Amino acid sequence: MRTSIFDIFKVGIGPSSSHTVGPMRAANRFVSQLESARVAGRTERVAAELYGSLALTGIGHGTDRAVLLGLSGETAENVAIHQIEPKLAAIGTDRVLPLGGVRPIRFEQSTDLLWHSDQLLPGHPNGMRFSAFDASGALLHSAVFY
To answer: Which of 133, 143, 141 is nearest to 111 (CA)?
Structure first.
């Protein structure tokens, strides 16, 4: 069996793949789940909750940035590096996240990106939960990732 350098190293943003590439993939996968469940078009709000180790060191490791980019449809392998800062600045300034890169939804980082540094999910210290809500606030879909 041959092993390629690409099997060992993965392209990604940030100093820690467990705090950036993993959360970015999880956020992107959550958006795919919304599309598969046919609720992406009704989604008006998304909440991302980070637990344990992700919450404790996430800001310094870029977890927040990775989650926002993943929810915006970006992947670690294909994100245009020169567009990262403008995209993140627009989300913060406009308070709008382009869900999956196509559907603009309101996004307040102070209430929609939550850091639970004193809580753990049962499966692993690096846990996160994503939830999607409709215009009335009803839960459309929720998923936990490790």
So the answer is: 133
